[in-house]
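Review form for a predicted model. The reviewer records the input and the model, then writes brief findings.
Reviewer: anonymous (R2)
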Amino acid sequence: MVTGIATYYSARTAEDQLKQSQEDADESLRSQASKVAFYSDVEDSLRSRRYYLVNRSADPISKVHVMILADVEWKEKGDAEPRRQRSQLILWLGSVPPCSGIVLRSRDMSVDPTAKTNRKIPRGAEISLDQYFTVDSIYFNDSGGRRWKRTLDELTHWVQPGDAYAAPPEPVTDVSIIQVKLSHKVLLDSVKPCGGA
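Model under review:
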């Protein structure tokens, strides 16, 4: 009977240790990714919003894609006023250095003319300047090559490849999904705190 009780408690202890070990491994895996975030504020003019994408880890993040909802304008032949449509923009940032961040403003973004899918959108499509746009999520690789998805609410390990985003419908009849670029990368000097456990 004593042996049975000892075996039971030994098995429970081993199970608890395994569970704790798995939790520690998961926490270690998420360590760098948990230090990557984004947030917004309103510019002094109160007319537009800006977003800050920050990497508070001591290592760079790479293959950074920012998914943005913003207004795009274009004129078609015979139109007196430009048409405007809410669209999903994909901003490819490449990498963000350690202990730093990037400021995103709609006026600093433009349609990327080299993107193949963008050749199908109406000619002259432009991002509306100084608007209230929304960052929906960011995708990035940590220093171990693991892919992550960060929203305002959660951080999840992203198992799909970096280019696995929804493809625009064929043929593209409206400005739906557009690849954009920054006219210049606006880096913050540094972000604090940085690194650490």
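Findings: The chain has a mean pLDDT of 83.
Further findings: The CA atoms of residues 110 and 180 lie 5 Å apart.
Recommendation: see findings above.
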